[in-house]
Amino acid sequence: MSMLTKRATVYLEPSLHKALRLQSIETSRSISELINDAIRDELAEDANDLSAFAERKNEASLDYEDFVKELKVNGI
User: 33 pLDDT exceeds 90?
Assistant: First the structure.
């Protein structure tokens, strides 16, 4: 473990802990690595979502009723 890492206590549901242990064994990676990767992926997804919101912030708003009408016109 790198000297730059930080410790944290995380309480996992027993089923999640078991799944992590099994995946750790199957992939020859530590539980910490798996958790770090999962958190990194989740944060990257959040960053992508925020970026998409920022790109679309100047789009015109669409009234709910107009939106529903448009869906019906398109057969959705």
Answer: yes
